[in-house]
Amino acid sequence: MLDRLLQASGLKRAVVCGGDTSMAVARALGIEALEFAAPAAPGSPLCLVHAPGRSADGCEIVFKGGQNGRDRFLLDVLGLTTCENSAQSYGGHRDNDCSPSVSSESLC
């Protein structure tokens, strides 16, 4: 379902909750690798997706286990900042020159 949503909507950031669900989604999206992009929550970083030839390639995703995370987890992910064209600049810190890359309508 997420693959079709990414294809149809042009969304570039997704959150998947649940450990087993995350594994199934990663396989369905054809994800070959994840690259750290920014801290989101302990154990659940924002990652750049590498899925050559697939709709998820180049998207940002957070996989979160089902039994962890704060009540504000989804709001925190929505407010994460990114630096387009510069995944190397994250370095595990928010960059003051970056702005939020999504609006509330673009989080799936």
Describe what is shown at a glance.
The protein is built from 3 helices and 6 strands; from the N terminus they run H-E-H-E-E-E-H-E-E. The chain has 108 residues and is of the alpha+beta class. The protein is globular and about 35 Å long.
Give an overview in words.
By secondary structure, the chain is an alpha+beta fold. It is built from three helices and six strands, in the order αβαβββαββ. The strands form two sheets. A four-stranded mixed β-sheet has the order 1-4-3-2. A two-stranded antiparallel sheet has the order 5-6. A hairpin with a 2-residue loop joins β2 (33-41) and β3 (44-50). It is globular, with a radius of gyration of 13 Å.
- Spans of at least 5 consecutive residues whose pLDDT stays below 50 are 83-108
Give the helices and strands as they follow along the chain. HEHEEEHEE
Sheet with the most strands: spatial strand order: 1-4-3-2
**Tally of separate helices:** 3
Whole-number mean pLDDT: 76
| Outline type | globular
Key features of this structure:
two-stranded antiparallel ribbon, 108 residues, disordered C terminus, single chain
Helices and strands, with pairings:
Layout (H helix, E strand, L loop, with lengths): L1 H8 L3 E5 L1 H10 L4 E9 L2 E7 L9 E5 L8 H6 L2 E2 L16 E2 L8
Parallel strand pairs: 1-4
Antiparallel strand pairs: 2-3, 3-4, 5-6
